[in-house]
Amino acid sequence: MNRISITVKPTNNCNMRCKHCYHAEEGFDNTMMKPDYAKKMFAIAAKDYSEIFVVFHGGEPTLWGIENFTDVLEYQEKIASEKNVIFKNSIQTNGLLIDDKWIELFKKYNFSVGISFDGPHNDDLRSNTEIVYKNMCCLKEKGIKFGTLCVENGLSIEHFENTYNWFKNEGFNFKVLAMFMSGNALEHKELELDVIKYVDCLCKMYQKWLFDKECNISMRTFEDLLKVSDRLYCIQYGGSCIHNRICINPNGDIYPCGRPYTSDFILGNISLLENFSQAFSTAAYKNLERISIERQKQCGENCKFFGVCKGGCVSSAILEGSFEKINNTTCVRAKRLLSKITEINTEIYKFYDSGADLSKLNPHAVKIIKKSREGKFNFMHQANL
């Protein structure tokens, strides 16, 4: 199936000021996207793609308002019917404004919902913890499935087992993101993660998760790591993005994806865009392809884990100071993590292949191992190491 992922950023404004926010470098402007910009993106996508993933991001996307969301989603339904295409919508939000009206919209348009919330250490980075927690409980009560993005930082990582248990006890699915030192985070050096400590704490909890028979939640980070086996390297969070993603900013400017990029990577503006191949043919995008290919070449020659990350995320490399050099912080962390995970997984897969009693394992883990051995994975998403 011909697929594309579109990130729609209705605004860069936000109703929080998190300590680690990368948008701080650009500023929180009040520009709101014209609904017609999003509509045109959907119409263009429907010309060439049969399955279209739409991610509403920001800033804080709910600041755009229910009315604008309803307007563009009704148009999206019309396009889907006329062109016989499938739209799948998701939103990444801080959860502060979620109420019954938002919940009804999520239900009506079958949204996948992501909440940025750090569990028991949410106050380290964010604010309004009690309000957001209450809104998450409301989502759960109303039957809205959602996932939580939990950022681990230098202050919290030693207590990661407590974090895991908190999410498990609350029944909230979650995924871990490592603190990225950019934007506001640069003013808070105490938040910086020690690579060795981060990997060791994560792996220690990963081993416990594998045998947690009472696990009642999806822990996306560990589920992704379990897919790294002796037969299958499958976490592609870099090279697979090329030609598979595109982003529109509030002012209509087009970028390669929703991650932070400098103005050198603007692919044009929606006002002049007729199709996505036009954006993918620009000098800026060709430069991105060149950088990606060069990084893949360097990494492929020097790293046994190249099959997992395909050279990594170009945007992350830019934020870390150089997109042409390898072995940045993200790379070093990923190598150490994957080295340890490969050792752990080798034993787990041997355990499975031996026909041993699988009732000792986490039922979520058993399902993943079975699918891995049967080669039944679909990898549209990105994993973060």
| Individual helix count | 13
Mean pLDDT: 88
Shape: globular
Strand line-up in the sheet with most strands: 6-5-4-3-2-1-7-8
Helix-residue proportion: 40-55%
Strand content: 5-15%
The CATH architecture classification of the largest domain is Alpha-Beta Barrel
CATH superfamily of the largest domain: Aldolase class I
- CATH fold node name of the largest domain: TIM Barrel
Order of helices and strands: EHEHEHEHEHEHHEEHHHHHH
Describe the fold and architecture.
With 385 residues, this protein is α/β, with parallel strands linked by helices. Helices cover 42% and strands 11% of the residues. An 8-stranded mixed sheet has the order 6-5-4-3-2-1-7-8. α1 (35-48) runs parallel beside α2 (66-83). The longest helix has 25 residues, at 329-353. Residues 231-239 have low confidence and may be disordered.
Quick rundown:
This protein is of the alpha/beta class. It is built from 13 helices and eight strands. Strands 6-5-4-3-2-1-7-8 form an eight-stranded mixed sheet.
Keywords:
385 residues; alpha/beta; TIM Barrel; 13 helices; 8 strands; globular
Architecture blueprint of SSEs:
Layout: E1 3-8, H1 35-48, E2 51-56, H2 66-83, E3 86-93, H3 100-108, E4 112-116, H4 129-141, E5 146-152, H5 160-170, E6 173-178, H6 195-210, H7 220-226, E7 245-248, E8 254-255, H8 276-280, H9 283-302, H10 306-309, H11 314-319, H12 329-353, H13 363-374
Parallel strand pairs: 1-2, 1-7, 2-3, 3-4, 4-5, 5-6
Antiparallel strand pairs: 7-8
